[in-house]
Structures are given as C-alpha cells and as structure tokens.
Amino acid sequence: xxxxxxxxxxxxxxxxxxxxxxxxxxxxxxxxxxxxxxxxxxxxxxxxxxxxxxxxxxxxxxxxxxxxxxxxxxxxxxxxxxxxxxxxxxxxxxxxxxxxxxxxxxxxxxxxxxxxxxxxxxxxxxxxxxxxxxxxxxxxxxxxxxxxxxxxxxxxxxxxxxxxxxxxxxxxxxxxxxxxxxxxxx
Length: 186
Ligand SMILES: [Zn+2]
What we know:
Number of helices: 9
Strand order of the largest sheet: 1-3-2
Largest sheet: 3 strands, mixed
Number of domains: 1
Radius of gyration: 17 Å
Shape: globular
Bound molecules: zinc ion
Oligomer: single chain
Helix content: 55-70%
Structural class: mainly alpha
C-alpha cells in the first residue's frame, strides 16, 4: 500500500529523531547497539525454550516484538531468527525497532507499510546515498551492509528523489551534519 507524501516525510523525520535521540548513527548501522540503547532486550529464537519457540516461529519466521504486559514480561523484547542471513536479520530487527519507535498497536496496515518504509530509510538513508554519490546496488550494499534487495529499493528511492530535483530536506541536512561532525562520512 502507499502512504500519503506527507506521511513519508513524517517517517523520515521520525528516523532522524530516533537517530538523534540514541546517537547510534555510524554506518553500517549496528541494530543490536541501537536496540540496547532503547532499552530493548534482544533474544534469538534459539535461546527460547523449544515449546515456545515453535509458536514464535509460527508468528514470524524473521522477528517479532513482545511488549510489557504480554507473556508476563515487564521489558520490551525483540525475538529474532538467528538463522536468517545477516542482511535479512538486520532488516528484521530494524523493522521491529520501527514498530516500537512508532508505537504501532499492531502489524496491520497502514502500520506494516510504515514500518517497512522506516526500516529501509533507517538502514540506508536516502540523503546519505545521495551525499556519497552511491550509484550501484553493489555500492549501496557495501556501504550499509544490507541485502541486495534492500539496496536496490534504497537506490531506487534515492534516484527517484534526485529525478524530482529534491536532494534533501532540512531535517536531513541535520542528519548529514551529525555524521559529518563525527567524521563518519568521507
Ligand atoms: Zn511488521
């Protein structure tokens, strides 16, 4: 499904806010460190007792979130499938972080589309692709350590943005400034 243009912009801003709040901005993004700073506990499926693991795998092959109150826990947990390839695992965790940060009440639409857009933008921000002049899927993939498919989508979005003649929004310059200051960009 498609969201309204203003909602996409709000989501970009939400990513910028999240990065600023927790200050984990070095690329490739360390989603484990980010979750840790957010106070979210990460658990691999393999660390969950077998009886429960089956139910979890049934809920999602990749990852899912347990919020305080569910399963009698008082902390937010992200459970993830440690057998997925690295790029996919990273994206799954980023996706759950999106649901948590945006305080989505469920995985239903439009929340799922929002989380998908958010995780993609967070793992490979469009303004950084433009700033670094990354031109191929291979370059995007190498820079952000994401899957080929995620890199393809990120590059396409960056190219679309350039075609519209809009290379960056004000809040995105803040994101870029944050990286520049810390010497994280060439
Ligand atoms: Zn989701």
